[in-house]
Amino acid sequence: YGSSSSGDSTSRKTDYDVLKESHKFLWDDDKDSSQLSYEEQVAAKYNASLFKEYAVCDLKHYKSGNVALRWRSESEVLSGIGQETCANARCEHHQPQSERRKLPVLLTLEVPFAYVEHGEAKSALVKVVLCERCKKKLMWKKEKERQDRVQGEEERPSESGRDSDRRLPLSPRSQRPAALDEQGRPTKTRRSRSASPHRAGRRRSESPPRRS
Predict the structure, then answer these.
(1) What would the DSSP string read from start to end of 122-188?
(2) Which regions form coiled coils (predicted)?
(3) pLDDT band at residue 207 using 50, 70 and 90 as cut-offs
(4) Which of 13, 70, 119, 202 is within CB 3.0–4.6 Å of 17 for a Cys-Cys bond?
(5) Which residues pair with 125 in a beta bridge?
(6) Partner residues linked to 180 by β-bridges
């Protein structure tokens, strides 16, 4: 009497779901495809259709240093996106433009890309083509860390500044800075002996010697 199907269609995985789970940014070309699982074969087939000379990036979270990269598709290669235009997908110069509007100067950069894939940390050198504004975004966090490091070093007191704050020991009699010897110890000052006023007065009162 028209019983409905008992199968749950929501539990079935599409090729897109399989691709998201098994996709890799870089594949080992030396690995035999016959040893791959069905999921890996789907991801490897899609990876073979990509062009890995230049990458497309997303700089939405550039201040935190998190940058998304992916390889270009065939349609993007044919239209020149990411090679003849800025690779930042959010840039106004990302899409091909008419000849009336000239593109800014584009810079080709080879940047280290560190990422985590299936719980494993990996890294690769990737080429991207960016305009000057997007290049500054890509380098923003590293430049900010460099400026903070330089500012921190300038705020530290220098050795010469600390030495200038040291005060020489004062002599107990004169309350003036005492001279130091080569070992840094206060030297003893020799006071000149002067005649007392009484003795000086006696010398002045003495009569000159008589002449014979």
Answers:
(1) EEEEEEEEEEHHHHHHHTHHHHHHHHHHHHHHHHSPPHHHHHHH--PPBPTTT-SBPPB-TTSPBPP
(2) none
(3) low
(4) 13
(5) 112
(6) 186
Structure tokens at 69: 């990269």
**Phi, psi (deg, nearest 5) at residue 207:** -80, 150
Query: Higher confidence at residue 20 or residue 167?
Result: 20
DSSP letters of 24-35?
A: -SS--TTS-GGG
- Cα separation, 140 vs 47, in Å, equals 31
Do the beta carbons of residue 50 and residue 71 sit within 8 Å? yes
Residue 58: pLDDT above 80?
yes
pTM for the model: 0.59
